[in-house]
Amino acid sequence: MLSQQLRMGIEQVPPPNRVKRITDADAGTTVKLGVSDVYVVVTLTGTNAVTIQLPAVAACAGVVYAIEVITDGNGVTVKDESDSTDWTNQVTTGDGKKLVLYSTGRQFTLIHSDL
Fold it and tell me: How confident is the model at residue 16 (pLDDT cuts 50, 70, 90)?
């Protein structure tokens, strides 16, 4: 059973409809993620920042979100809907950064961050 779960974890790649791409067209705005936007790729080449707002924490219990910042333009901020216990906004410090979050249904738990 465990080897099957590990194999599934290694082989899983989000389907294209679960990938949210944030580009210069979104710069200067707040992009609200849907529950199914589990993989977010940020590529900003301009000088404007962008804010990513996570979905309601209760609506996405058990979901893992991965946010990859290829290039951040002038910054990327990841925030919640003010409904996650002990949440602190995450702010990028440059290109090539990753953030992985898990929703318990009450809070977003930071699994990995190199922001």
Answer: low
Q: How far is residue 77 from each of residues 17, 31, 72, 108, measured CA to CA in Å?
A: 23, 10, 10, 15
Its CATH architecture, for the domain 15-113, is Sandwich (2.60)
DSSP per position, 34-67: PTT--EEEEEE-SS--EEEEPPPGGGGTT-EEEE
Q: pLDDT tens digit string along 22-43?
A: 999 999 999 999 999 999 999 9
Q: What is the pTM of this model?
A: 0.83
Residues near 6 by Cβ (< 8 Å), separated by ≥ 6? Answer: none
> 15: Cβ–Cβ under 8 A, 6 or more apart, which residues?
none
Widest Cα–Cα separation across the chain: 49
- The candidate with the shortest Cα–Cα distance to 48, out of 67, 31, 68, is 31
- Mean residue pLDDT of the chain comes to 86
Query: Looking at this protein, which amino acid is placed at residue 68?
Result: E
Long-range contacts of residues 10-18, Cβ cutoff 8 Å, at least 24 apart: 14/38, 14/39
